[in-house]
Amino acid sequence: MISGTRSGGRSSSSAAAQQTARQFPPGGSHEYPVRTEDDLLTVRHAVRAASQELGFSLVDQTRVVTAASELARNALIHGGGGALFIEPVREITGTGLRLVVKDDGPGIKDVEGALTDGLHHRGGPGTRAGRRAASHAQLRGAHRAGRRDDDHCRAVARPMTSEAWDRPVTVETRIDHYSAVHLAATRARSLGTRCGLGGSLPDQAAAVASELASNLDKYAREGSVYLQALPLGEGLEIVAVDRGPGMADPRRCLTDGYTTAGSLGTGLGAVQRIATDFRINSTVPDGTVAAARITGGQHRPLPSGAGMVCLPAAGEDVCGDSAAIHENGHIRTTLVIDGLGHGEAAAHAAGRGLRVFHDHCDDPLEQIMQRMHHALRHTRGAAVGLVRIAPGTADFCAVGNIRLCVLSPQRPHRQLDGRPGIVGWNLPTVQTRTATVAADETTVLYSDGIEARWARQPSAYFLGLPAEVLPVALGHRHRRLRDDATAVSLAGVA
Description:
- Residues 1-27, 115-166 and 260-266 have low confidence and may be disordered.
- The chain has helices spanning 13-23, 37-53, 58-79, 111-114, 124-133, 162-165, 179-194, 201-219, 250-253, 267-274, 344-360, 365-375, 460-463, 470-478; strands spanning 30-34, 82-91, 94-103, 137-141, 153-157, 171-174, 224-229, 236-241, 277-283, 287-294, 306-311, 321-328, 331-339, 382-390, 393-399, 402-407, 414-417, 433-436, 442-447, 485-491.
- α2 runs antiparallel to α3 (58-79).
- By secondary structure, the chain is an alpha+beta fold.
- The radius of gyration is 25 Å and the shape is globular.
């Protein structure tokens, strides 16, 4: 919390924050002038009050206040004053604040330089600190010598709650009793809301989860429902996986009226109608994977050819692994990071690495690895794997127990292992290796929480699964319960 008083000692910071909270509007943008040192205190109170209203954790409140304070101070010291605009935002990744700081000049010649630690001419460490404290930041500047009155600098920082963006986690509900059907539906409704689904969509997500879980309870063995945010795009993914007996004709099961249990036979057909995208893969006797994706933008096609799973160790509330996929045109770059051990300390290391990836995901893979090594020096360290898929090729760079497997329905599979070492502690010479990947092949990047034996001789069951559902199926069948388990799959690009 911020301590201290306004000049004159008339009111405490907590009282000022409460007063600002009453003034903060429920929607729209609110402006605060930045002309004096006292205004900086007002800005901090206003931002903290706004973040409290939106339900930010104490850690996230501190981060967003730090970002606002540094940006506003730069506007006062280097821009001759300006204004801070606070606007609540609600996006698919969660609820947050958009902070816009404007000044009247003289602008910034070198915007990238201003974001580098150690540069003290206009916004050196302060601007960089503001960017680090925000989950998303932009800095735009216009510069003309001698024209302070016409030019301005605009900085935007949008911190989101850590639950929404820091570490994607997959929620598993084992369907070992009929009561678990209701639990899966409740979790789907809650996670759908957190993923930004509006209106009746969270209830529709609950209905889909309930139907898929009910089918597992009635017909399948060792089934689970997995819930997670989409790896690419915006929305919720609901995946039901079992170990048999499978369906001889999955398409027939999608027809209204077809049933083997005496019910109305509208279950899977209703799921197909509700979901933005629904696919089902089943083999006898191996089992079934049914995946429904629900989004708010019904008219936009969902990105395809990418799947993910990120499961915490049994008994843990947080996951020490993390993963991300970045798309830039026809090129996709993915990260799997495994913090040493598991629990809070491992999650802290993975979260730091994830932020580096989000900031530098278009850089060469070796540079991303070097940046992560620097960022993780004061953590317990991590194993890190990076893959960049381009038409016909896959570049692989990894340190530690992160493995890459290239699956092909026609050709022998290939495996690549990371180099020995720990990112953040003893980084070996970083190397990027390139493998040929055809359009019909799938690359799978996974942590050692997934048993490596699956890749020695991949079964026909896994070879027949599309990239979108392959990681969840791997996690269901080959996860080590005592460790965090993460896998990401990407289809080849023609």
